[in-house]
What does this fold into?
Amino acid sequence: MIAPEEINVLLAFFAQNSILLERKKEPHIKILGHQESCRPAPLSILDDKLKEAAQTLFPVKTELRYQSGFGNYFESEALVGSLPKNQNSPQKHPMGLYPEQLSGSAFTVARAENRRTWFYKIRPSVVHGRFSAVSVPLWKTVGIEPVMSPEQLRWDPCPEPTKPVDFIHSFFTLVRNGSPESRSGVAVHIYSASQSMTDSYAYDADGELLIVPEKGTLLIKTECGDLSVEPCEIVCIPRGMKFQVQLRESWARGYVCENFGEPFRLPTLGLIGANGLADPRHFLIPHAAFEDQSGKFDLFARYQGNLFKTALDRSPLDVVAWHGNYTPYKYDLRLFQPVNTVRLDHPDPSIFTVMTSPSVTPGLANCDFVIFPPRWMVAQDTFRPPYFHRNIMSEWMGLIKGRYDAKEKGFVPGGSSLHNCMSPHGPDAETAEKAIQATSAPQFLDNTLAIMFESCYPYRVSEAAQKTPLLQKDYLDCWRDLKVMFQPRA
Ligand code: FE2
It folds into this structure.
């Protein structure tokens, strides 16, 4: 049992840490405030007895909680009363916060395309030191790459780092197209990080960051709050939003699509109807959470293909409340509802589109984010693997888990492949041989999750990605043994 005076100690502790309590029936006490803000209470500073009592009496959640709905309009406050209810810019904020708007679209675009969020910050973003350039030679989104042929390419996974390196400094650009300046195209990077960003934060003015972990869970702190994302989930950080990436394990690896074009959105469903593919309600948005910290911090800014650094004397994640529709979000790819054939042949792989970034031409994607998830294969009298084809669109692919159904070997989790505009591709010889001989019994394709960033712009391969020993020299050999089976009949 815990004594009444000890309850008072706990109440004082929570009050000091801005955790608001609502006392209902003794001894049940519901925690508001910081619980809503997703930051667990720092119970570690309590002694063991009080810690145990706190965990018994106050069910402090250590897992993050989220709001839901893709593209919805949200509002959130970490402290009750910190979000102005009737206007955006009050003359005098009741808690002394500064209103600041983050615009993710031009002011004048159509309402359906308009994205902006109002922050209520301890101090405006404009307080910072001078910027200086930082060298990150493997994060390369501008400049000239060596001429490359239309040859199909495939890479092995990046290894575990041998030196400490954080998320943004571990970027290795494989391919890119368009440019930050033209506000079109994407770059695809691999990250392989071995340490959290400590005392440092970043934002990307060139594009939004769609992060696809393959190994290791990430805690991503943003101006809108915190998100935890594990392999088989994705997270998207909007262009310009400040963030910090912390590792939950000793090593994290995955893919990043840096999207210079229009922000990703859900695809239209057309004749599929109102349901199917990625459901808007499964996209999760954080609650407000803030850091009220002074100290020495670095802020990294990606701008026009270069990385810059400036000094801060306070944490930039100081947003106590916010409202708007320009937010980070996460999504669990395992919730995707695949739609596919129920008799014969394949729909085109666009049927597996999770999100799309449109170009200026209707129906033509700056980038489609496509997955190949576990699913039933039931097509009769059908060559079931992905068919052989040539495509005006350019296809970069990665693998999150298991095995991709077009390749028996060589394409492994953490690896990548590139089939550029009009370069032929399809299942390897071993897969094709098996598929031609297989019976058409229904089969559940399990233990697989491949991803694709498909773009209307041909990809350029970075010089480092053309020269890395991770590039497989024998990729073309996987098709070499495809037999000639032609038997002309009289
Ligand atoms: Fe393809």
Observations:
- The longest helix spans residues 4-16.
